[in-house]
Design a protein that fits this description.
Blueprint lengths: L8 E9 L3 E4 H8 L4 H7 L3 E4 L6 H16 L4 E7 L10 H8 L7 E5 L5 H15 L4 E10 L12 E11 L4 E11 L5 E2 L8 E2 L1 H21 L10 E4 L4 H15 L15 H4 L6 H12 L7 E8 L3 E9 L3 H4 L2 H9 L2 E2 L2 H10 L8 E2 L10 E5 L2 E4 L1
Parallel strand pairs: 2-14, 4-5, 4-6, 11-12
Antiparallel strand pairs: 1-7, 1-8, 2-3, 6-7, 8-13, 9-10, 12-13, 15-16, 16-17
The structure holds acetoacetyl-coenzyme A.
Acetoacetyl-coenzyme A binds next to helix 2 and helix 6.
């Protein structure tokens, strides 16, 4: 009897989008009268993305996905999974708005996934299952978030925003995901956002401990299920609420797995997050974009990815970079998205932060600020309008 080999499945194409504005940590530190080294070195952050009034999770998500469709069209896409923890409706998926903005066919299932910053990985795993069952299908996954903390809280300097869209297919051109994956869940009160709040409630120190505990749990599960040893993984990507967290995580994992801590194994993956801030569900995949964009010799190399979503659900998994990855990456476009952001001063940033609280009780029109391909135009009869 001949052996039947399942095709490799994984990430075939990937693009990153971010906001119209940016605030430097130097400006934030100066306004607060604290040493900028706390942010630059202590948190590992240089600047963070700030949304214009006419940007939200939907517009960022659509902007990230558009280049994928421009390159490959919509053929084969029967599922759109949108991961976010800063969604715009408690019932309707943000993905349905994105589906219309992108002009996707009606024969597409659309759903939003939520489990804090982990949901992008949940979407990836669901997508892998769909494609494994029917390799002719493609799944469009979009992780999109605007991370907002209370002004003057400890979390404030870890704000940010990003969206990463990726196409999950059989025989992927970028990253083939290995079948073994380690998961770890525990009910932890480290970070959550009750329905009556637009910013999270956070126990920052507990969240760091919970993250590291989850990393250990997910990695042990990965090993128990026959996952590759750490010595066979050449690069590591971590969920990055702030890039120092990836450093703490990699030191922790290296200790658990008995390998030497080597900062070169994480360095390229930090480049975009230092400038984006926390992109919640998009953060790990912004790390993947940065790694692919900044290293030329990754073909055949194995990458380890750790996804953490407070509350808490986490996963450690691996993938192998494919030979054609350099032709598919978007180095110039990603640099342009980051460089094109318009700096704001601290007073403007604080005003933008306050204006994001606006509800749906009254109709309003928003001024045109963003230069992105899609914008949030305002609210009419409690309905968000996108252009
Ligand atoms: N120069 C250099 N380093 C300095 C410094 C200076 N002048 N001043 C302080 N530092 C260092 C500190 O020594 C500390 O380093 P270590 O972590 O090595 O101890 C670091 O800067 C941070 O300083 P503090 O511990 O005083 O920071 P803080 O009290 O302001 O809080 C935080 C830090 C808890 C991360 C806070 O920003 C926070 O609550 N963030 C939101 C929650 C979060 O991101 N948690 C991460 C895990 S949960 C997760 O990953 C999910 C998610 O996305 C939210």
């Amino acid at each position: 009897m001949s052996e039947v080999h399942a095709p490799a499945v994984g990430i075939h194409d990937l693009a990153l989008a971010t906001t119209h504005h940016v605030l430097t940590h130097e400006a934030l530190a100066a306004a607060k009268g604290i040493d900028p080294g706390k942010y630059r070195v202590g948190l590992g952050q240089d600047e963070f993305s700030v949304a214009a009034p006419d940007e939200d999770t939907v517009t960022l998500a659509a902007a990230a996905a558009l280049p994928l469709l421009e390159r490959s069209g919509t053929d084969g896409i029967r599922t759109l999974l949108l991961a976010t923890e800063s969604g715009i409706d408690q019932a309707k998926s943000a993905g349905v708005f994105v589906h219309r903005l992108l002009g996707l066919p009606s024969a597409v299932r659309v759903v939003e996934l939520k489990q804090a910053c982990y949901a992008g990985t949940a979407a990836l795993q669901l997508a892998l299952g769909i494609v494994a069952r029917d390799p002719a299908q493609k799944v469009l996954v979009i992780a999109s978030d605007i991370a907002r903390y209370d002004l003057d809280s400890a979390g404030e300097p870890t704000q940010g925003a990003a969206a990463v869209a990726f196409l999950v297919t059989a025989d992927p051109a970028i990253l083939a995901i290995d079948p073994v994956s380690g998961v770890h869940s525990a009910d932890v009160g480290d970070f959550w956002r009750p329905n009556d709040r637009s910013t999270p409630v956070v126990d920052g120190k507990l969240s760091i401990r919970a993250y590291l505990d989850a990393l250990g749990g997910a990695w042990r599960d990965h090993q128990a299920r026959g996952g590759v040893p750490l010595a066979e993984v050449s690069r590591f990507l971590y969920h990055q609420p702030f890039t120092r967290m990836a450093e703490k995580a990699h030191k922790h994992l290296a200790g658990l797995g008995g390998i030497a801590y080597d900062p070169a194994q994480i360095a390229s993956g930090l480049v975009y997050n230092r400038r984006l801030g926390n992109g919640y569900t998009a953060s790990l995949y912004a790390g993947l974009a940065a790694l692919l964009d900044h290293e030329d010799d990754l073909a055949g190399q194995r990458v380890g990815l750790f996804s953490y979503g407070s509350g808490a659900v986490s996963e450690f998994f691996t993938g192998v970079v494919q030979p054609g990855y350099r032709e598919r990456r978007r180095v110039a476009e990603h640099a342009a998205a980051l460089d094109a952001r318009v700096p704001v001063d601290v007073a403007t940033y604080r005003a933008l932060h306050a204006s994001a609280e606006r509800g749906s009780a009254e109709d309003y029109e928003l001024p045109r600020v963003t230069r992105a391909p899609f914008r949030f135009a305002g609210v009419t009869a409690r309905t968000r309008r996108y252009e």
